[in-house]
Design a protein that fits this description.
262 residues, alpha/beta, 8-stranded mixed beta sheet, 9 helices, 35% helix, globular, disordered C terminus
C-alpha cells in the first residue's frame, strides 16, 4: 500500500533488508522526498511490541518536512533471530552505516527518534555513535526500570515481555541480562541535543528514568505531560509536532516547510 501511495505523497518508499552478521537482518522502510539528494534523515525505532506499520503510518504526516526517514522494528522482536541484548546496538550501527553510505542521505545530518524501548535505543545510540546529531527519546526505560523485575513496581506484563524478548530462561537470568542494559553510565556521554518525553505518571516503566536521562545528558530537554501514562499517548499529537520540530531545527531541514506544522 505504501508503495502504491508513494507517488501521490511525493515520496519514495523502499523496503530495505540490511544484513547483520550471518544470521540476522534489519527490515525497514526508507522514506525519502522524491528526488532527494543529501537530505537530513531520521532513524525511527519503536518498542518491544510495536510493529513496523504502527510506527510508519503516523510519521507519514511529516513527509513534507524535507527530512527522510528510516523506520525499523526493535531488535529482538518479530522477524529477528537474535534475542535482545546490549549487543543489539550493532543493529542500529549497521542501519546508520547504511544511511551514511546512501548518496540521497546527508551523512552529517542523521538523527534518531525512539518510542518506548526504542527510546532506550535512541538514548544509547546518542551516547555511543558520534554520527547522530540529534535524538528524541519517548518513554525510555534506562536504569531504574530494570531494577524491580518480578517485584513491586514492575507490571507482570512488562516482566514477561522482557523475558520473551531477551530469551531469558529464569528470573535470575533475566535480571542479569537487563542489568547489562543499564544506561546510567552513559548519560554524561550524550553530547548531542536530546529531547526526552514521557507521561508524568508512567505505569509501565519508571518516569524517573526519563528525568534521570534529562538531568544526566548535558544538552537534554525534558517534557513530561501531566496526567498521562507511558509515552504520553494521550498527548501524541503535541509531542509528535514537538519531536519533529526539534529534529527539524537541529538537522537544518527546509524552514519554509517545517513551519507548516508548528
Amino acid at each position: 500500500m505504501l508503495g502504491a501511495l508513494a507517488p501521490a505523497m511525493d515520496v519514495t518508499v523502499e523496503t530495505m533488508n540490511i544484513p547483520i552478521g550471518d544470521n540476522d537482518r534489519v527490515r525497514g522502510y526508507l522514506i525519502l522526498p522524491r528526488g532527494a539528494t543529501a537530505v537530513p534523515t531520521v532513524l525511527v525505532s519503536n518498542g518491544i511490541e510495536g510493529t513496523l506499520a504502527e510506527a510508519t503510518l503516523p510519521m507519514l504526516k511529516y513527509r513534507a518536512e524535507g527530512v527522510g526517514m528510516f523506520v525499523m522494528e526493535m531488535p529482538g522482536t518479530y522477524s529477528y533471530r537474535e534475542p535482545l541484548s546490549a549487543a543489539s546496538e550493532t543493529f542500529y550501527s549497521a542501519v546508520i552505516d547504511f544511511l551514511a553510505a546512501d548518496p540521497r542521505v546527508d551523512a552529517d545530518r542523521i538523527g534518531m527518534i525512539g518510542f518506548s524501548f526504542g527510546g532506550y535505543w535512541s538514548t544509547r545510540m546518542a551516547a555511543v555513535d558520534p554520527r547522530l546529531k540529534v535524538a528524541v527519546a519517548n518513554g525510555a526505560p534506562s536504569h531504574r526500570s530494570f531494577g524491580p523485575l518480578n517485584s513491586v513496581g514492575m507490571p507482570e506484563i512488562m516482566v514477561s515481555t522482557f523475558r520473551d524478548t531477551t530469551a531469558a530462561k529464569s528470573m535470575p537470568e533475566l535480571r542479569r541480562k537487563m542489568s547489562k542494559l543499564s544506561l546510567a553510565e552513559h548519560y554524561r556521554d550524550i553530547g548531542i541535543p536530546l529531547l526526552v518525553i514521557n507521561g508524568a505518571h508512567d505505569t509501565l516503566v519508571s518516569t524517573q528514568d526519563s528525568i534521570d536521562i534529562a538531568i544526566g545528558a548535558p544538552r537534554a530537554q525534558l517534557v513530561l505531560y501531566e496526567g498521562d501514562d507511558h509515552c504520553a499517548m494521550g498527548h501524541a499529537e503535541q509531542w509528535s509536532e514537538l519531536s519533529m520540530r526539534f529534529v527539524h531545527d537541529h538537522l537544518g531541514a527546509r524552514d519554509e516547510i517545517g513551519r507548516a506544522h508548528v
